[in-house]
Structure prediction request, 98 residues.
Amino acid sequence: MARIGYVLTLIGGLIIIALSAAALLNFPLSLPFHSPLSGYFGIGVITLVLGIVAVFGSRRVNELVWAVVLMVVGFLSGGIGGLLTLVGGLLGLLSRYA
Prediction:
C-alpha cells in the first residue's frame, strides 16, 4: 500500500508542477477543482512550491510526519494533482499503521 501511495503522490506532484507552470505562463486552464489558496495568492508560485514539496516528499510517504504534510499539500494545492497527493498521503498513513 505504501508503494501505491508513493506512485500516487509522485504523479500528483508532477501534475501540480505542470499545471502551476502553465498558470505562470498564462495558459488558460479550466479545471473542475480549484485551489483554496487561489483567492488569496497568485496560484502559480505557491502551487509550484507545493508541487515540489510533494515530489520530494513522495519518497517518504510512509513516515507519519511526511504523510500528514503531503495530505495538507494535497488539500492546499487543489486540482486533480492535489487530490492524487492527498490520497497518496492517506494511503501512506494507512500503510504505516495497518
Notes: The chain has a mean pLDDT of 85. The chain is about 70% helix and 0% strand. Residues 2-97 form one domain.
